[in-house]
Amino acid sequence: MDYKRLGKRIREERQRLSLTQAQLAEAIDISDTYMGAIERGERSLTLDTLVRLVNRLGVTVDYMLSDSVANNDSNIAAQFRQITDGQPPERKQLAINILRTLFSYFENEYE
Fold this sequence. Notes:
Strand content: under 5%
Distance between the termini: 37 Å
Helix content: 55-70%
Radius of gyration: 18 Å
Number of strands: 0
Shape: elongated
């Protein structure tokens, strides 16, 4: 786990919302000092704290941890299933068609 990258992403999202470390820390019920250490990558955080953090920042856990998750074929397929789960078949087919078009563009562009 790369805590420095996670901390950097947290800082970027906090700044995007124009929040101070103190404001974010108060919103998720941790100390300012702990918040600073998390953003610097000096401290880890519990799952409970991470969930409160992503909820306050309005992002997803997978976005926050994307630098730490391996992008192998099975993980990518699982991410696709997660995105399409609950979608009607027509939307799933549309997504497949968009991907085919995109990959076709890449093949033609780089040949």
